Structures are given as C-alpha cells and as structure tokens.
Amino acid sequence: MKIGILISGRGSNMVALVDAIKSGEIPHSEVAVVISDKASAGLEKAKERGVETLVIQRSGRTREEHDAEIANALRKRDVELVCLAGYMRLLSKDFIHAFENRIVNIHPSLLPAFPGLDAQRQALEHGVKITGCTVHYVNEHLDAGPIILQKAVEVRDDDTVEILSARILEQEHKAYVEAVRRIAS
Ligand code: GRF
Q1: What local confidence, expressed as pLDDT, does residue 9 receive?
Q2: N or C: which end of the chain has fewer CB within 10 A?
Q3: What class has domain 2-184?
Q4: Gap from CA of 85 to ligand 1 centroid (Å)
C-alpha cells in the first residue's frame, strides 16, 4: 500500500507511521511521499528517514488549485492512502472526492466531542475526566467522518494543556499505527 502523508508542522505522527513501516509493524506498505504546505520540522525528520519530501505552498492560489497540485503529486506516485498528520488546512471537496474513503486523519479528542482547533484545551475547559484521540476517515465535514479507532486518555485535576496534550500524543502515535496497520492488512 502506497501512503502519502500530509503535514504542516512537527510531524511526530508522521514519524510514528514511517518508523512503524520501516520496522515491519505496518506490513505491505511504503511511504511514497511526505508533503508539507510549508517548510517544517517534520519535513526534516522525513528526509532523515530517507522519505521523499515536497513543499507545496498555497502561495496566493485558491484552495482548489493548491489541492489539485497536491492530488497530482500523490497520483504521480500511485498513492492509495492519504494520511493527514497535523495538516492544518481544510481540504477541498474535489480533493476529498478524488481520494474518496482513502483519506484518514488523527484528531486529539474522542470525536464527536471537541472537533476543530485546540481540542485538548476544549476538553480541559469543559471539565471532562476522559478524553483521548480518534483516527477517522475524512469526509466533507470537519472531523466528522467514520471512526476507525479511538484511544481513551485520563484527564487529571492538575493537567495543563501542554501536559494533557503530551499524554494524548503518546496514544495518538499508537492509535495511528494500529489504524493504518488494519487498513494495510
Ligand atoms: C496532533 O495532535 C494531531 O492529532 C493533530 O495535530 C497534531 C499534530 O502533531 N491533528 P504532529 O505534527 O503529528 O506532531
């Protein structure tokens, strides 16, 4: 299974996927390309691991034009599964339809609770005692596609956004690897 990963920043979920493929934990798969919409720390980590990287910037174009360039780059490499890993842009309908049921995302809450930005802060402010992360298919609605896998994480009384985010992130890496492993097999 050829995988394309879209990132915007740190890229720790991307690294978890690349490493799990290299170690054989995710079988029959290859990361064909990591694409970022800007220069990012994650891209350097992908390069260090010998994965092809591309920066495709939006730069004054419409969302549709930007997404079309990304879609072409993915098609050129025969990508069959698109993994969003901290990709901070909404995707156009055309892109989502071009890769229907072949785009997955990781989100740092137990969806449908706390979609959108700052999910960990939302969880703290709401006072929930359990939150977590969700791997889901991407459809036209924000953080709303069919759920593949979730992992629960305890919220502690003295948690800050940073501490809670770090606890969730550990589970994100496991959840994303497990979800892609299931899809691959
Ligand atoms: C993660 O918390 C992910 O759930 C969210 O954005 C963050 C990306 O982190 N969508 P990283 O770039 O994978 O380290």
Answers
A1: 97
A2: C
A3: alpha beta
A4: 6
pTM over 0.70: yes
Nearest atom of ligand 1 to the alpha carbon of 16: 13
Confirm or reject: Cβ of 6 under 6 Å from ligand 1. Answer: no
pLDDT tens track for 136-152: 999 999 999 999 999 99
Q: What are the residue ranges spanned by the domains of the chain?
A: 2-184
Is the CB of 85 inside a 6 Å radius of any atom of ligand 1? yes
Catalytic annotation present for 107? yes
> Number of C-alpha atoms within 13 angstroms, CB side, residue 61?
14
Burial 31-44 (b: 16+ CB within 10 A, else e): bbbbbbbeebebbe
Query: What is the structure's pLDDT at 176?
Result: 99
Atom 5 of ligand 1 has which residue's CA nearest to it?
86
Ligand 1: distance of its center to the CA of 28 in Å?
25
Judge if the beta carbon of residue 86 lies within 6 A of ligand 1: yes
172 sits in the region (left: phi over 0; alpha: psi -120 to 50; else beta) called alpha
Catalytic annotation, pick one of 28, 66, 97, 107? 107
Query: What is the full DSSP assignment across 46-105?
Result: HHHTT--EEE---TT--HHHHHHHHHHHHHHTT--EEEESS--SPPPHHHHHHTTT-EEE
